[in-house]
Amino acid sequence: MPNRSEPTSEDAIGGIALFHDPRLNRSTAFSQAERERYGLLGFLPEQVETEELQLQRVLEQIDIKPNDLERYIFLSSLHDSNETLYYRTLMSDPARFMPLVYTPTVGEACQKFDRILRQPRGLYLAINRKDHLVEILRNWPEKDVRFIVVTDGERILGLGDLGVGGMGIPIGKLSLYTACAGVPPNLTLPITLDVGTNNEGLIADPLYLGLRAPRITGQAYDEFIEAFVNAVATVYPRACIQFEDFGFAHASPILARYRERICCFNDDIQGTASVALGGLIAALKIVGGSLSEQRFLFLGAGTAATGIAGLLVQAMVMDGVEKEAAGQCCWLFDIKGLIQSKRQDLADFQQPFAHEHDAIDEFTVAIETLKPTVIIGVSTVAKAFNQTVIEGMARINGRPIIFPYSNPTSRSECTAEEAYKWSEGRAVFASGSAFGPVHVGDKTFVPGQGNNVYIFPAMGMAIYATQAMRVTDEMFIVAAKALAEQVTQANLDVGLIYPPQGDILKVSLKVATAIASHVFDRGLAGVERPSDVESFIAEKAYVPNYPSLG
Description:
Elements: H1 32-37, H2 51-63, H3 68-81, H4 83-92, H5 94-101, H6 105-111, H7 113-116, E1 123-126, H8 133-137, E2 147-151, H9 168-181, E3 188-194, H10 200-204, H11 218-235, E4 240-243, H12 248-258, E5 264-266, H13 267-287, E6 296-299, H14 303-318, H15 323-327, E7 330-334, E8 337-338, H16 363-370, E9 374-377, H17 387-396, E10 401-404, H18 416-422, E11 428-431, E12 438-440, E13 443-445, E14 448-449, H19 456-466, H20 473-485, H21 489-493, H22 504-521, H23 533-540
């Protein structure tokens, strides 16, 4: 089993130290022989429990917690004390536990990070220690890290600058690498870059744990990112870096600077784009037509919007559509109105979607004028898809496609109930946050969640298995298509355009297989192609069983 390095002698471990190693601790599941051999007698009651009984106790403890934040804290403590049982818990019911260890609960956890911190997890790299990053990375006990999720805390979900509180995001993401796609947890490392914070509330908070200074930007910031990337390459040359929740001014430039130099990707840009593309491909099984026959209108024009639009264009080009024609399918709208060629305030990454058009200042007018078949919300503006917007989409489309993708739930552009109700049950809906079933008339709809968890863990597993040298946009298109292929007619009949989250491990391994096959086809792998890629991927997957003690 691809787990941690095993002990090599009885002298390496023993006694109470075993309980303090989360990867070796099995608590009440230590056998009588192990208790005698490793000096554990007396530390535990006499009963030896199976892993199933341990899981039952965990589930009962979770059930009595008063709210999701307390459940998050409990699961974090379990992660710190018994890693195997933690992942057994998550993988026992992923649809239940993903929202607890990641969105939406992780948003509140990040906001309250300084107050709920128990056991440190991951590494904090502060800008004032720029010259010592290699030394700090070498403090990490694992010597073969393959995946690093890193944030600078500037744009955590839709919540903004949370400073070092953003560490909840890398921790949560990497937990899902393992729980949803079987990436061995010992290969992962969460990192937060502390470059200060512009959140005055945090600076004034006596419990805030990060640097109490305004955010560093400009050349000093760029040099710090360069030092970080170089340090990772020195200490962990086989690691893939996932950039996460960086601010508007930094996310796209960082990706552009390093994507051809190292194995890296930005999940906010590429993962979000891929899961959106997968949802749209599945939605067209209901609506009919091809991608190039749609008109996409985005509310929001940041890195998420341009990332989705860019991947849509690439997918259409791969299907034989001229790039210019594909680009004309995608329109963006931000706080200042329609993104169009006469505007002088656009960033470089917005320019490809600045089409020739008169200015439009109201989103509802943009809908009436452009007549989109799809609206995608990546604005973090709650309720922006109001009744007028939804009814406008329903008036010009028999089956309007409505994707409010902003996270967390409090920032969603609309709820599933609003989209279905205001469209008279005709909307094809998916959201960034989870919503329960909706009843309209005599029909029940099951809303899909366009959660990046369908993409980034599978991408991680494919990279791990193939030792891919680079991450390309084509890999995300392959992932999106593989994801859409797993949506069944029964799913579509209730409006569900993503596979059920309870099947996430099976889904992820299928997606990983498709990505890995593409990696081998394109000559990007660092290992030889196996005869059976699907079996090759499955054999690499972590299973939450207690490791041998020697």
